[in-house]
């Protein structure tokens, strides 16, 4: 089905993304999951096709396309590989965006260009052990010392950690202040005092790198402060709005991929002398799945269009994150059910898709946190 009646240019981009995902990403999706490795080859192919530069201006190494194209890219990649969808979503929405939005011209020309062209992978690190993403309770400290900041502390569940060369790291520069005490920094891999823990062993998106970070007297130049000191709370919130929209597109893509596999299976599988698709219970399930996908698609692309126009989409992104991630979890579970016992085996990718869908309910803000924000908005 056409997405919101895309115009001709958008349809051409969508077609290109679909062909790329099927040809370059899909063949090794199962291998990435089984062997749990970040696929540098896939990332380099994305870079070569301009995917790492969506939606940044050409002057910073981007493609000049919009957020609708970026969200479409995450959706199409995630149809065949949720891990690869995560790689690009984190790289663009969480690592590149804050540099583009809050960075100096020098930071954009240096760091955003390296990210947009895909010469380096980006990462975003906010969550800490014991504090989750509670911005006011972070333990990582950044102390100004002359022309440098000294970072000390630990981060957990950092996506793209390890392969990434550029990290957006949040630390308290003024522990006595709540919202005004948080600052954001650009930290390069290889900086003395910055070490990366072993990769986490996860339920799903196992080809997507996640690890802890450790900072011990890590000195970074003062010019690597992102925005101004104390602006970290604003940077984190605005970045996460786009992050949870990107993860909603990932959830949408995973659900669509599972639905398509289930649809093909029930049309070909026979029981009691009939195709499974001839049974009314199966037909009703397929109808429900199609409706859930279309409703989710409308939510996701409405938010993407608001972001493209520079309008407030904070509530819409929260609605997307809660609704679409829960839809993806239910729909992938239903897809496994369509396959019966075969769906529970690793011979078919639907079980991988079900495992991949779960994380979309958790990272960049749990569905419970999204409901709190939505309720706050509607209650004024």
UniProtKB/TrEMBL annotation:
<keyword id="KW-0274">FAD</keyword>
<dbReference type="InterPro" id="IPR009075">
    <property type="entry name" value="AcylCo_DH/oxidase_C"/>
</dbReference>
<feature type="domain" description="Acyl-CoA dehydrogenase/oxidase N-terminal">
    <location>
        <begin position="8"/>
        <end position="118"/>
    </location>
</feature>
<dbReference type="InterPro" id="IPR006089">
    <property type="entry name" value="Acyl-CoA_DH_CS"/>
</dbReference>
<feature type="domain" description="Acyl-CoA dehydrogenase/oxidase C-terminal">
    <location>
        <begin position="230"/>
        <end position="378"/>
    </location>
</feature>
<dbReference type="InterPro" id="IPR046373">
    <property type="entry name" value="Acyl-CoA_Oxase/DH_mid-dom_sf"/>
</dbReference>
<dbReference type="InterPro" id="IPR009100">
    <property type="entry name" value="AcylCoA_DH/oxidase_NM_dom_sf"/>
</dbReference>
<keyword id="KW-0560">Oxidoreductase</keyword>
<keyword id="KW-0285">Flavoprotein</keyword>
<dbReference type="Pfam" id="PF02770">
    <property type="entry name" value="Acyl-CoA_dh_M"/>
</dbReference>
<comment type="similarity">
    <text>Belongs to the acyl-CoA dehydrogenase family.</text>
</comment>
<protein>
    <recommendedName>
        <fullName>Acyl-CoA dehydrogenase</fullName>
    </recommendedName>
</protein>
<dbReference type="InterPro" id="IPR006091">
    <property type="entry name" value="Acyl-CoA_Oxase/DH_mid-dom"/>
</dbReference>
<dbReference type="Pfam" id="PF00441">
    <property type="entry name" value="Acyl-CoA_dh_1"/>
</dbReference>
<dbReference type="InterPro" id="IPR013786">
    <property type="entry name" value="AcylCoA_DH/ox_N"/>
</dbReference>
<dbReference type="GO" id="GO:0050660">
    <property type="term" value="F:flavin adenine dinucleotide binding"/>
</dbReference>
<dbReference type="Pfam" id="PF02771">
    <property type="entry name" value="Acyl-CoA_dh_N"/>
</dbReference>
<dbReference type="InterPro" id="IPR037069">
    <property type="entry name" value="AcylCoA_DH/ox_N_sf"/>
</dbReference>
<feature type="domain" description="Acyl-CoA oxidase/dehydrogenase middle">
    <location>
        <begin position="123"/>
        <end position="218"/>
    </location>
</feature>
<dbReference type="GO" id="GO:0003995">
    <property type="term" value="F:acyl-CoA dehydrogenase activity"/>
</dbReference>
<dbReference type="InterPro" id="IPR036250">
    <property type="entry name" value="AcylCo_DH-like_C"/>
</dbReference>
């Amino acid at each position: 089905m056409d997405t919101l009646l895309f115009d001709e240019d958008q349809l051409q981009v969508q077609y290109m993304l679909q062909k790329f995902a099927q040809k370059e990403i899909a063949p090794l999706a199962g291998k990435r999951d089984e062997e749990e490795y970040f696929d540098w080859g896939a990332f380099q192919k994305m870079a070569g096709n301009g995917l790492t530069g969506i939606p940044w201006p050409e002057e910073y190494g981007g493609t000049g396309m919009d957020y609708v194209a970026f969200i479409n890219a995450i959706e199409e990649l995630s149809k065949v590989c949720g891990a690869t969808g995560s790689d690009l979503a984190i790289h663009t929405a969480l690592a590149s965006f804050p540099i583009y939005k809050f960075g100096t011209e020098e930071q954009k020309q240096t760091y955003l260009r390296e990210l947009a062209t895909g010469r380096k992978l980006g990462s975003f690190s906010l969550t800490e052990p014991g504090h989750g993403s509670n911005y006011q309770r972070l333990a990582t400290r950044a102390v100004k010392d002359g022309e440098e900041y000294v970072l000390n502390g630990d981060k957990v569940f950092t996506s793209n950690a390890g392969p990434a060369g550029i990290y957006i790291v949040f630390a308290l520069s003024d522990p006595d202040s709540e919202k005004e005490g948080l600052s954001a920094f650009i930290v390069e891999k290889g900086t003395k005092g910055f070490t990366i823990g072993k990769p986490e062993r996860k339920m799903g998106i196992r080809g997507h790198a996640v690890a802890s970070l450790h900072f011990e007297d890590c000195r970074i130049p003062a010019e690597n402060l992102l925005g101004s000191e104390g602006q970290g709370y604003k940077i984190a919130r605005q970045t996460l709005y786009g992050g949870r929209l990107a993860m909603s597109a990932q959830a949408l893509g995973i659900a669509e991929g599972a639905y398509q596999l289930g649809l093909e299976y029930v049309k070909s599988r026979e029981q009691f002398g009939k195709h499974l698709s001839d049974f009314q219970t199966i037909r009703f399930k397929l109808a429900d799945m199609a409706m859930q996908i279309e409703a989710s698609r409308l939510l996701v692309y409405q938010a993407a269009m608001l972001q493209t126009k520079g309008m407030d989409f904070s509530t819409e992104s929260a609605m997307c994150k809660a609704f679409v991630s829960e839809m993806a979890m239910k729909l992938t579970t239903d897809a496994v059910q369509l396959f019966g016992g075969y769906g529970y085996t690793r011979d078919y990718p639907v079980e991988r898709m079900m495992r991949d869908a779960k994380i979309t309910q958790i990272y960049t803000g749990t569905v419970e946190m999204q409901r709190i924000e939505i309720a706050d908005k509607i209650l004024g």
